[in-house]
Design a protein that fits this description.
The protein is about 40% helix and about 15% strand. It is an alpha/beta fold and about 240 residues long.
């Protein structure tokens, strides 16, 4: 079957693009192709809901954890349980803790704009966090905390079973890749993770909360978003 030609104007909303970055430099580069191993069993919605509830209960049962002790609510995930895209942030803040849902307030508004700019509605994807409790005074999670919660994160990924994973922020990057370094040297590059005999493409990018503090870096986020859109089209994913 001939490859479908995508009209780029239909994929990108230029008005919304300008709210992210009005000027940017972009050069097309080849993207690595990953051989995705199909899951032997696709979980039904009911099974996914039950497994997520079980995961939530076990997270709530964690002992000797300063993150949990200083937080009043767990934030697990939200969105389409069968989405081809799972977006993982670093950790919830005050807005998320108050609502019990991920990516709220100004951070959520910016994330919505970022996704819409590449023709994605947030309700069609699934969002979650590397850390499920708000850190005290919104500090960065320690490497030991990230490692401890990464076990639950990987189980969360296995339940949702996406085709692409987007890691927003250094803590999310460290949780799944083990890389504890500057995100600036890792973002924008397709990586892969093998979990339960399935290969997941990963894209590391900047967290919306970081972009609010340092808006001059939105141009890098926009470049990453376009790579994500290209991968979606390349894999012919339905959102």
């Amino acid at each position: 079957m001939p490859k479908k030609v995508i009209n780029q104007n239909s994929k990108f909303n230029e008005d919304l693009i300008s709210t992210i970055e009005s000027k940017f430099v972009f050069a097309d580069k080849p993207i690595n192709r990953f051989n995705l191993i199909q899951s032997n069993e696709e979980l039904t919605n009911d099974k996914k809901i039950n497994q997520i509830e079980n995961l939530k209960n076990r997270l709530n049962s964690i002992e000797n954890c300063k993150l949990k002790e200083n937080s009043n609510k767990i934030i697990l995930g939200e969105g389409n349980l069968n989405s081809a895209i799972m977006l993982i942030g670093e950790a919830p803040g005050i807005e998320e803790e108050n609502s019990g849902l991920p990516f709220r307030g100004a951070v959520g508004e910016l994330l919505d704009k970022m996704l819409i700019a590449i023709n994605i509605k947030r309700q069609n994807i699934y969002t979650g966090y590397a850390i499920n409790f708000r850190p005290p005074e919104d500090r960065k999670p320690t490497s030991s905390e990230i490692k401890r919660y990464s076990v639950f994160l990987k189980e969360h990924i296995s339940i949702i079973n996406p085709k692409i994973i987007v890691l927003m922020g250094a803590s999310a990057m460290e949780a799944l890749t083990g890389i504890n370094g500057k995100i600036s040297s890792e973002r924008g590059k397709w990586k892969e993770m093998i979990l339960n005999n399935k290969t997941y493409p990963l894209m590391v990018t900047l967290n919306p909360s970081y972009l609010i503090r340092f808006p001059e870096n939105k141009k890098y986020s926009w470049a990453d978003l376009k790579e994500i859109r290209k991968k979606i089209d390349e894999l012919n994913l339905k959102l």
